[in-house]
Write a structure and sequence with these properties.
four-stranded antiparallel beta sheet, 25 strands
Length: 331
Amino acid sequence: MSEMTKAVPGMRRRGFMTVVVCAMAVGCAGESISDAPGAPTETAPAAAAGMLLPELIVAERGGFIPEGIEYDMTNGRLLTGSLSEGTIFEIQPDGGVVPVVSDEDLVSSVGIEVDEIRDRLLVANSDFAVFQGGATGQAKLGVYDLASGDRIAMVDLAAAIPDAGADAAYFANDVVAADDGAAYVTDTRMNLIYRVNPEYEASVFHRFDDGGAGPNGIVDHPGGYLLVARGATLWKVPLDNPAGAAEVTLPEEIPGQDGMVWSAGRLAIVSSANRVVALTSSDDWVTADLVATAGYDTRATTAAVVGDDVYVVHPTFAGDDPPSFERVVFR
């Protein structure tokens, strides 16, 4: 792994809007998301969506460095961002790369969140140059109409930090939408989480001041808390008391935790160890249990739920080789 790929924190996440019924080969164990209070159910068209995509999709071109992916159930399409171009693209089953959101203010689109209930697309808008030396980066949240791609808002997250300091550096990494319409965005360089209310006003929700790894992937739980990836650790952050954030006791070390999604009643975490780790919890995420893993050969950053399947993205951080999108198999 190059120094660049080591430095680039990936992202994320997915909220309960993408929860699917427990239909994968490995049965659900421990906590069932589909039975959790407030957890929405999946529709039949979404459950069949995975049948429309091949096991492996190779993009028709390289250079755009996709980091985050999402499946848009409303419009039946796989979406991805771009660290180098900022544009949000649809990745078609044959590898076609079609622009969906083109905005000159999108510098590096990292984590993306499809919020079907509110017909919007949320984009963590950063600057990849912060990992190439000499740049301060940026932390913004772009909000777009899901159907048209028109901009609804561009929120300056970094402006919400009082007295950040002249040497501050920013990297908005991942984003999740909560049930009340608020969005939560991780900033890996500032080691904090922002909250953006439904009126698109930003505030600092929680700062991790323990000297540990910056937050990366993030998901929302209907029990009233966030789960946040930080290096090899997973954290639970209560929405009504973020100061009560606590590390989840994991069954084993999960290094380089990146993007996270809810799938088949389990939390699926993309790890730098070239696998996706599926966890459940029987004690409201005080501790977690390992129930399945899915491996692959090439580094992945994030994942998307497509029907009953989980797809990971394999970006190319250097060179012109095209990225790929692969369906993983849990065992």
